[in-house]
Amino acid sequence: MDFVRKLVPVFLFASCVLLVTINDNRVKASHRVYSRLQSVPAGEVKQLHRTAYHFQPPQHWINDPNGPMYFNGLYHLFYQYNPKGSVWGNIVWAHSISKDLINWEALPHAVFPSKPFDVNGTWSGSVTILPGNRPVILYTGLDNDKRQIQNYAVPANVSDPYLREWLKPDDNPLVIPSSDMNASQFRDPTTAWWHGGHWRMLVGGKRKHRGMAWLYRSKDFKHWVKAKHALHSASQTGMWECPDFFPVSLHGKNGMDTSKVGEDVKHVFKVSLDETRYEYYTVGKYDPEGDIYLPDNTSVDGRDGLRLDYGNFYASKTFFDPSKNRRILWGWANESDTAEDDTAKGWAGIQAIPREVWLSPDGKQVLQWPVAELETLRGQKVDLKSIQNIIPGKLVEVQGITAAQADVDVTFSLASLDKAEEFDPNWEKLDAESVCALKRSHVQGGVGPFGLATLASQNLEEFTPVFFRVFKTKANKHKVLMCSDAKGSTLRPFDIKQYRPSFAGYVDVDLAAEKKISLRSLIDHSVVESFAAGGKTCILSRVYPTLAVNDAAHLFVFNNGTEPVSVQTLSAWSMSPPKLMNQNLDF
């Protein structure tokens, strides 16, 4: 079924939104604010398309996860939140706590504009836990001149297990942009790390069109000095938002404290590119003595680089969880559909399911997987075993679960790759999303497309396919494309305000040797969050069906390639909502 329509993307804002420089480092925000959407009574919040088990407040707008941390037996998540409406504006640091990363209790807002150094905004940042078990928030404030400056906040009572109240000392700011820097492109301080008698932190920025990770050092965490050189930079990449920098072990899945260095460690450097609204990362080596980060020759900066997620995923932040010796990744699942009338539903934005992240065995990329705690929400289970030779055009329905609120894990086996399509050399100039737009699920291939038709109506008037397609290159190697295609996800009329992309990424897997590939999809009403090949490629899609909602949603396995595909194993679960999801957010 062909749902090809003209695609005009409309992008949303992260915490550090598009600004225009006026003069003398003074800046002016360029947001369009819908005043009628700045206050929506709780009774008017529309439940259609609201997620059941993803992190979300009862109403209003959210974006970046700011400073996740584990502290004294509790997980804390700070995030950008508009307490007055369902569009960007009035941003505060909202604060929630959890014992298990699944059930969340809302607390009073931690940071909000109130002092000269943040009177015009409290934007993204991070948390660092200092010696003596003392957490400190680092965040970007907009001062009276609307410069972006870096501030800190501390708990009013560190013995309070919930850390309900935070103070912003009057010796702020910690860091201001120097006279040669653009004060409107200087934001999002990272979690700091300690080495050789100094703390270090990064602040994202740009110099002309060069992305910059400005490096600052401090002996006491209060007096910071800008280094003579950036930790890392790259030309033609534009503003680097929400940088993240963390170590990963060369051996196994165990996470590491942010200050860990050594021969058994590599580092991951991640930025959110303001120009593309996507995230990119490299894997490389950090020299702590020279304070230089060098990506490996298998990693490249910018638009051609690796991505943590190839879908609606931005402004991510990791933290080390010492209770389970793992590193956890949070990311903002921004809205795909930006029509003003849709935002009037009373809420906008969610957080992706927290993911454990570690280095792949070959050291070339990171792997991601939903935290194990999510499995506690699994309910009714259905197993489909050994479905042999799904022929072209055949659909196999997965019945017996709530298809709009599910967790499905499937492994496909391939008898032969001989009929894989030739990979057009001209496609080397295209990104994976463009190739997917040309080779969507209705376009028959040789090996693939095969996968899942999620959030599908009974007769497939609308559905979101998550699928693989295998190509053969001139070098006689195989290239595996993964797609999560939102173009046919809804029958709502398409217009310029809507963004329904054919999200896609390539999967680094040797199908000739393995002859199988796995896919896990978390389906949650308006979210399809998918993980290929054990977390090598991840795609989160936001979709808004009209027919495939609640009990009317269906889930199918499909194959539209001429080569038969088999299901080796498939397990699917109905997912229950958490017992607590910020219900007491009323501050």
TrEMBL record:
<dbReference type="InterPro" id="IPR050551">
    <property type="entry name" value="Fructan_Metab_Enzymes"/>
</dbReference>
<dbReference type="InterPro" id="IPR001362">
    <property type="entry name" value="Glyco_hydro_32"/>
</dbReference>
<dbReference type="InterPro" id="IPR023296">
    <property type="entry name" value="Glyco_hydro_beta-prop_sf"/>
</dbReference>
<keyword id="KW-0378">Hydrolase</keyword>
<feature type="domain" description="Glycosyl hydrolase family 32 C-terminal">
    <location>
        <begin position="373"/>
        <end position="574"/>
    </location>
</feature>
<dbReference type="InterPro" id="IPR013148">
    <property type="entry name" value="Glyco_hydro_32_N"/>
</dbReference>
<dbReference type="GO" id="GO:0005975">
    <property type="term" value="P:carbohydrate metabolic process"/>
</dbReference>
<dbReference type="Pfam" id="PF00251">
    <property type="entry name" value="Glyco_hydro_32N"/>
</dbReference>
<dbReference type="GO" id="GO:0005773">
    <property type="term" value="C:vacuole"/>
</dbReference>
<keyword id="KW-0326">Glycosidase</keyword>
<dbReference type="Pfam" id="PF08244">
    <property type="entry name" value="Glyco_hydro_32C"/>
</dbReference>
<dbReference type="GO" id="GO:0004564">
    <property type="term" value="F:beta-fructofuranosidase activity"/>
</dbReference>
<comment type="similarity">
    <text>Belongs to the glycosyl hydrolase 32 family.</text>
</comment>
<dbReference type="InterPro" id="IPR018053">
    <property type="entry name" value="Glyco_hydro_32_AS"/>
</dbReference>
<dbReference type="InterPro" id="IPR013189">
    <property type="entry name" value="Glyco_hydro_32_C"/>
</dbReference>
<keyword id="KW-0926">Vacuole</keyword>
<dbReference type="InterPro" id="IPR013320">
    <property type="entry name" value="ConA-like_dom_sf"/>
</dbReference>
<protein>
    <recommendedName>
        <fullName>Cell wall invertase 2</fullName>
    </recommendedName>
</protein>
<feature type="domain" description="Glycosyl hydrolase family 32 N-terminal">
    <location>
        <begin position="54"/>
        <end position="370"/>
    </location>
</feature>
